[in-house]
Design a protein that fits this description.
two-stranded antiparallel sheet, 31% helix, 4-stranded antiparallel β-sheet, 213 residues, alpha+beta, 25% strand
Length: 213
């Protein structure tokens, strides 16, 4: 079986103004959009993983330079980096329950685990691409990214692959109690997610129902 990692990023390098006005006046904003895809492979998957997260963090650090700020932690980055993920061209709808329609919904900086050629005698057989970390566009900076729970499930799946195939995890394997969001104590390979703050936000929200963590 092969495990490798991929980092994808899609964001605006600068503010572009009103897209419709720009289209009417013939302004080309293609140079303002960044779309990257880089793979990381190594005989030891944990080394590929480390390289992927180093690359991920380098993107985050460059964006923070553009904000003239210093990166502090993942929780704050989810707010700060909306500057690059949200073009400001969304349309807001609804009265009491407001929501936005935007073509920025694919904008993100994400790390994926790619699983290829699993051994037939192992119980984990499905090939696949699994997002294990990411900062994405959100409609409102005070609302949680709904994909966080799926990422957490993928982290548990990643840990299971490493255990079943006896891959070394170095110091990356950590134990976290997910009791506040209806889970249990779980081992996973560490990412920049600030789970303490995120779990505080998750508590009491409908998003956590029926997730079976």
């Amino acid at each position: 079986m092969d495990i490798y990692y991929r980092v994808e990023s899609r964001f605006w390098r600068r503010k572009i103004g009103n897209k419709l006005d720009n289209w009417i006046t013939g302004i080309d904003n293609s140079d303002a959009y960044v779309d990257t895809n880089q793979e990381f492979r190594h005989a030891s998957p944990i080394e590929a993983r480390k390289a992927a997260f180093d690359h991920y963090q380098s993107i985050i650090d460059v964006l923070y330079e553009g904000l003239n700020k210093k990166y502090t932690h993942d929780y704050q980055a989810r707010i700060d980096l909306q500057y690059f993920l949200d073009s400001g061209n969304s349309v807001e709808l609804g009265n009491e329950n407001k929501f936005k329609i935007s073509d920025d919904f694919l904008n993100a900086i994400e790390v994926y685990m790619i699983v290829e050629k699993p051994f037939e005698d192992k119980k984990l057989k499905a090939n696949g691409t699994h997002c294990i970390h990411g900062i994405r566009y959100v409609d409102y900076s005070d609302r949680l990214d709904s994909d966080l729970i799926e990422n957490l499930k993928n982290l548990f799946l990643e840990r299971q692959y490493y255990e079943d195939y006896n891959y070394p995890t170095g110091k990356e394997k950590v134990l976290k109690h997910f009791d506040p969001i209806g889970g249990t104590a779980e081992f996973y390979l560490q990412t920049p997610y600030d789970w303490d703050n995120l779990m505080t936000d998750f508590e009491g929200q409908e998003l956590m129902k029926n997730n079976n963590l």
